[in-house]
Write a structure and sequence with these properties.
single chain; about 220 residues; alpha+beta; 12 strands
Length: about 220
C-alpha cells in the first residue's frame, strides 16, 4: 500500500507569537501535572488544562474517566488569543491542553482509541496540534508518517494510529492540543485528497494495530 496520509496542515494561519505569549502567561502560574497515562511516557510529559472534564486545570483525563462536562479552567482566562481562536473553530470543544515534553524524554508508542476525523469511523473526537516551541531535533511519528510540524500552523493528526515522540533537543517541546467533535464544517477545512483516503486509513489502521500489538508482545517477552 502506498504511503497514506495520517497528518495534514489546515489552511488556518496561527499567530505564533500570540500563542507563545499565552503559554508564557499560563506557565508562569501553573506548573502542569504528569500525563495521566503513565505507561505512555517516561516521566517528562506534562499537561496544563485550558478546557477539561470538570474544569480543573490539573485534570488530564477524558470525560469517560471523570464524568463531568468539559468546561474552561482558570488557566484559559490568561489566554486571550487562544480563546479567540477556539471561538473560530467550527466544532464543539473537548479537552484543550498545553502538553510539554522535557529534553531527553519520550512519549512511547501508543494509540488513542478511535479518535479520527474520518467520517467512516463515526468518531466523537479528533485531535489538532499547534506547535508552540519545537525543533527539528524532536522525533515525531504517526505510524509511518514523519511529522515535521512548525509554529504558526495548526495540524490534524490521526492518533488512532500508533504514534511516538522523542525529544532529542535541549529544551522543552510545547504543543497546544485541541480535541474537537468532528462535523462536516470541520472536514471542509481538509484537502479533498486527504478525506478521500479514509477507506485506505480504515484498512491500514487495522494492520498498524496488529503490528503494534506484536511489538508490545515482543517487549513483554524480553522483559520477562
Amino acid at each position: 500500500m502506498t504511503q497514506v496520509q495520517l497528518n495534514v496542515k489546515l489552511p488556518i494561519r496561527i499567530e505564533a507569537e500570540k500563542i507563545l505569549s499565552d503559554f508564557q502567561a499560563v506557565s508562569s502560574i501553573f506548573s502542569g501535572v504528569p500525563h495521566s497515562v503513565k505507561e505512555h511516557h517516561n516521566g517528562g510529559w506534562k499537561s496544563i488544562g485550558l478546557i477539561t472534564s470538570g474544569g480543573d486545570v490539573n485534570e488530564d483525563r477524558h470525560i469517560n474517566k471523570v464524568g463531568k462536562p468539559y468546561v474552561a479552567t482558570s488557566a484559559l482566562q490568561f489566554c486571550p488569543y487562544i480563546r479567540e481562536l477556539l471561538d473560530k473553530l467550527p466544532a464543539k470543544k473537548k479537552r484543550v491542553r498545553f502538553l510539554s515534553l522535557e529534553p531527553n524524554h519520550e512519549i512511547k508508542w501508543h494509540f488513542d482509541g478511535t479518535g479520527s476525523i474520518d467520517k467512516i469511523v463515526n468518531s466523537t473526537s479528533s485531535r489538532f496540534h499547534i506547535p508552540v516551541i519545537t525543533s527539528p531535533k524532536v522525533e515525531f511519528k504517526i505510524c509511518h508518517n514523519v511529522c515535521q510540524w512548525q509554529p504558526g500552523n495548526i495540524y490534524y493528526g490521526d492518533f488512532s494510529f500508533p504514534h511516538r515522540v522523542k525529544n532529542n533537543w535541549n529544551k522543552r517541546r510545547i504543543h497546544l492540543v485541541i480535541d474537537l467533535i468532528p462535523n462536516d464544517d470541520l472536514r471542509s477545512l481538509f484537502p479533498s485528497t486527504f478525506l478521500q483516503e479514509q477507506y485506505k486509513r480504515l484498512i491500514l489502521r487495522k494492520l498498524c494495530k496488529k503490528t503494534y500489538s506484536k511489538y508490545w508482545q515482543k517487549i513483554e517477552r524480553a522483559n520477562n
